[in-house]
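Suppose you are handed a protein chain with no further information: no name, no annotation, nothing but its sequence. What can you learn? This example shows the usual starting point.
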Amino acid sequence: MALMTWNDALSVKVGEFDDQHKKLVNLVNNLHDAMKSGQGKEMIGKTLTALIDYTQKHFAAEERLMKQHCYPEYEEHKKEHNMLVLKVLDFKTGFEAGKAPLTQDVLTFLRDWVVKHIQGIDKKYGVFFNSKGVK
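A reasonable first move is to predict its three-dimensional structure. Written in structure tokens, the prediction is:
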């Protein structure tokens, strides 16, 4: 059973970003599945690498659209993005130094961040972008 299930509560009503958020939910679920099958430690490095790649592309896309439409909460949103990037890089640095992050810690952090960020912060830009004709 998946740890997280995509549902309308996670939708920001912007197709491009919903599709990208679904990939993030899948990333969290893949790590969860690996943990359940005893492969969490083997999967953590791949997950962190994929998460770094994801955040670079996804955050750039969100921020580009925010700038294009003069999103009033851009700076606050960008700070949230930067905090996640720093946390993931911290996990990755520890992993590469042989101080493997606890898979459960990473999983819990990601799950909580996804729900809090998407449902709290991203939902705000969804309404804003929709009002600008972005669906």
